[in-house]
Every structure is written in structure tokens, then in C-alpha cells.
UniProtKB/TrEMBL annotation:
Keywords: 2Fe-2S, Iron, Iron-sulfur, Metal-binding. InterPro entries: Rieske_2Fe-2S (IPR017941), Rieske_2Fe-2S_sf (IPR036922). It comes from Microbacterium commune. This is Non-heme iron oxygenase ferredoxin subunit. The keyword Metal-binding applies. The lineage of its organism: Bacteria, Bacillati, Actinomycetota, Actinomycetes, Micrococcales. Pfam families: Rieske. The keyword Transmembrane helix does not apply. Residues 4-100 form the Rieske domain.
Amino acid sequence: MSAQRACSVSELEQDTPLRVELDGIAISIVKDSDDEIHAIGDRCTHGDISLSEGFVEGKTLECWAHGSAFSLETGHPLNLPAYEPVPVFVVEIDGDDVLIDPTVTKEV
């Protein structure tokens, strides 16, 4: 499969996650405070909570329910109670389009 349009760059607000679904996979897209765009799996591995409802700080996305923070770059949890990582997807920018292939995750 190839990358598909997930949203436009102009739809993204800084430090505000946007939930999208591509081929049945929920993905949280974040433009961080450095204007870098990240895409990680939207489900917290601890409580099956939508991460796009969480809080962005620096290069992390924190689950609102139990406070586990995940690295936007690696998907690894940075604190308990989560101990399993979430997938991180490759992001491509084409003009104003954010492209993601939901079948390909980053090697971290």
C-alpha cells in the first residue's frame, strides 16, 4: 500500500492532536511546538483510551485518563502505567497534504 492523505497541514493546530482513521487504523497526528508533524497510534496501550484527547508537551503526547506520556518520535511510553509502545508512522508532506501509509511504521 502507499501513503494516503490523512489531513492538510493547515488543519493542524500546534500542540493539538488530530484523530484520523486510515484503513480502519486510528492515528493521532500532532504538529509539535517546533512545527514538526508526527503520527502515532491513537490508542493508549494501558487503557485503550484515545490519545488524541490527550495533552501535547514538547515531543510527548500524554493520555488524559491515567497520565502515561508517549514519545511522538519513538512511540515508547515515558512513564507508567503504560509499558507497551504505540506504533509511529512515517509522515510525508506534499504541498499542504499530510500523507501517511497506515501499513508502514517507523523503525525505532
